[in-house]
Amino acid sequence: MTEFSRFRIGKLDHVHIRVPDQSEAAAWYSKHLGFEPVAPSQADASVERLRGEQDSRRVPVALFGGGHVGRAIVQALTPLPVRVHWIDSRDEIFPDKLAPQVRTEHSAPVEAAVRDLDAGTRVLIMSFSHAEDLEIVAACLLRQRARDDLPFVGLIGSKSKWAAFTHRLEARGFAAAEIARITCPIGVAGVVGKEPEVIAAAVAAQLMQRALTPNPRGAPEPIVLRPHQVGDVGWIAHRQGLLYAQEYGYDQSFEALVAEIAAKFVRGFDAKHERCWVAEQGGRIVGAVFVVRKSARVAQLRLLYVEPSARGQGLGARLVDECICFAREKGYRTLMLWTQSHLDAACHIYESRGFELRKRERHRSFGKALVGQYWMLAL
Q1: Pairing between strand 223-227 and 182-183?
Q2: DSSP letters along 213-262, please?
Q3: What local confidence, expressed as pLDDT, does residue 54 receive?
Q4: Cα of 19 vs its chain's centroid, Å
Q5: Which of 176, 190, 312, 364 to pair with 165, CA 20 to 30 A apart?
Q6: What is the average pLDDT value for the chain, to the nearest integer?
Q7: pLDDT: is 137 or 119 the higher one?
Q8: pLDDT tens column, 309-355
Q9: What's residue 376's pLDDT?
Q10: What is the pLDDT, as a whole number, of residue 4?
């Protein structure tokens, strides 16, 4: 027994269990444990299939940087339910032996790899230079603009490094709301130590907390409504132009209209009689709506939108309710809006809140044949 205790089991290839009735045992394992019987000739193919299914359930993580900290992080992530896409601009930087769930890529320039990351990838950035880090961050922000499908982007570095990066990103035209989606520094707070293994443990823990662990009982994070801030209105115009192009085939004339409405709101904003609500979920903008003054008695609801990731949570109705309450509080007698007939979800909300459809008109706008609708609510 003493000699046997020295052995450590690295992995199990197979287990042999003697049973009195093979058919009965096979039925029990299938029913209660989800096992499936496989003929010896099919064993290799079944193993590969199961490995593929297991890999597809792993959370994708992209790690930019093959240095000492990067290596330590790969080791820390290997036992976790993730698949790592490890990227560096330097050739022959990666170790020869890696776990099957770790894939390496030599990319020059390194930021070019951002374009082809899987949707839902969690990104960690720690390349060998600040210049490369900045280009990778900028590439991630551009991808977020276009596709909004990277749930977590983290950058290694100090607060002073991030302050310098923030100024450079602003100079490139990124809005404050976009830049705020980058996490820097990375790693759970309170972990002291500069050793690669210590940093790796803190980063892996943060991924488990913020990017890998689902919310309790699968509940979505709460949505918070707040007033608009610098950078929000430009971001909202950008997202609406992009979403309406992707979902409904609208051309750039719609983006131009939204930009004009947004610019007019910012230039002439009347805080006593107008309002913009921005919806945030997990630090991300997921919706917005505006109330603007048409006259002393009439207000207009404008630019209601909800990100696809936040739909089905009642956010659209909540934003409309805020508009109605605000308009009543400010003494308006009528709240009006203009929309399109094919926006069924929005039209359902308006009707459920007591708006009346007053007018329909066919028109050709935004590269499409549309039916405009004018709705009004007596307050």
Answers
A1: unpaired
A2: SPPGGGPPPPEEEEE--TTHHHHHHHHHHHHHHHHH---HHHHHHHHHHH
A3: 59
A4: 50
A5: 190
A6: 87
A7: 137
A8: 888 888 999 999 999 999 999 999 999 999 999 999 999 999 999 99
A9: 97
A10: 47
Q: Does 2 fall in a domain?
A: no
Answer whether residue 355 is part of any domain. Answer: yes
Q: Do the domain assignments include residue 7?
A: no
Say which residue, 275 or 310, is predicted with more confidence: 275
Q: Give dist(CA 167, CA 127) in Å, integer.
A: 20
3-class secondary-structure state, position 195: coil
The stretch 152-167 carries a mean pLDDT of 91
CATH number, domain with residue 205: 3.40.50.720
Clarify whether residues 116 and 34 are in a common domain: no
**Residue ending a domain, choose from 187, 213, 239:** 213
Domain that holds residue 252: 223-378
Do 230 and 300 fall within a single domain?
Answer: yes
- Residue 369, domain CATH: 3.40.630.30
Instruction: Cite the beta strand spans of the chain per DSSP E.
Output: 59-64, 82-88, 102-106, 122-125, 152-155, 182-183, 223-227, 275-281, 284-293, 298-306, 334-340, 356-365, 368-378
Question: How would DSSP label each residue in 339-372?
Answer: EETT-HHHHHHHHHTT-EEEEEEEEEETTEEEEE
**For the chain, how many structural domains are there in total?**
3
Residue 157 CA to residue 180 CA, distance in Å, equals 15
Same domain? For 24 and 153 the reply is no
Give the DSSP letter of residue 13.
Answer: S
Does 373 lie in the same domain as 227? yes
Same domain assignment for residues 113 and 245: no
Q: Are residues 47 and 184 in the same domain?
A: no
Using the CB atoms, write b or e for 327-357: b if 16+ within 10 Å: beeeebeebbbebbeebeebbebbeeeebee
In a domain, 260, yes or no: yes
For the segment 287-295, the average pLDDT, to the nearest whole number, is 97
Q: What angle do CA 183, 157, 107 make, to 5 degrees?
A: 85
* 63 or 21, which is more confident: 63
**What is residue 108's predicted lDDT score, i.e. its pLDDT?**
92
Residue 308, strand partner residues: none
